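Possible regression after last week's pipeline update?

I re-ran a chain I had predicted before the update to compare outputs. Posting the input and the new output here so someone can diff against the archived version. Not blocking, just want to make sure nothing changed silently.
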Amino acid sequence: MSATSYDSGSGAKQRALVTGASSGIGLELAKQFAQNGFDLVVVAEDEGIRAAARELETTGARVEAVQADLATYDGVEQAYAEATRSGPLDAVAINAGVGVGGAFRANELRDELRMIDLNVTGAVHLAKRVLADMTARDEGRILFTSSIAALMPSPFEAVYGATKSFLYSFSEALRNELKDTGITVTALLLGPTETNFFHRAGMDDTKAGQQKKDDPADVARQGFEALMKGKDHIVAGSLKTKAQAALISQMPQTVKGEVHRGLSEPQEPAKK
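New output (post-update):
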């Protein structure tokens, strides 16, 4: 897709907010917006968001960095307030999220609850705030980063998969509620992608963690294009990922669960 400049109708550049933008899919999504003429507000909990902002500024975009913990109420309120201080948002990519791998019965409760706070509660909270502004203007675009894990039970990522199922369902429901408005909602469903996700989720010893993964730049580009076209969702990534998602959708739930287990269950160490 060639770079395109999007304006707000008044000649001013449009503004986009991207969360979880210090690395991975979030940073690549931010690059897509910047390369296509948007100014940016980028948010992440870690200090890396400032380095990401400097990198994004090389595209010529105006970039504001906000360091905030979106797993907390105050963090979401801070991010929203700082993002809208300079004007309304034309597009929002609600991308921030974490994973926790391993058996549910053995995982730390605090880790699972924090994941819900970020992946679900923070996403709902931010969506509530930005939708109020978009509704008043009757225009805007929202992208939720979900996963093909939303299409199946996710043993050994049980809570993570449930959070992504929530986001997919939430996205499609909002889209329907808003169908007679100028606001579109798109869900980005991605497969295993080459980011720090699996390492941070403690899944280096799984087949999913060890297999070849999709290019995050390709995933982000496909997600951005789907958002700008107003699509309801896209399975982004390689042809292999798209084919797997199509096949999975035809399977019984019990079979889907076994497929996911084969990818996410920790592997036994090789015997010497």
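Follow-up from reviewer: compared with the archived run. The first helix runs from residue 24 to 35. Marking as no regression found.
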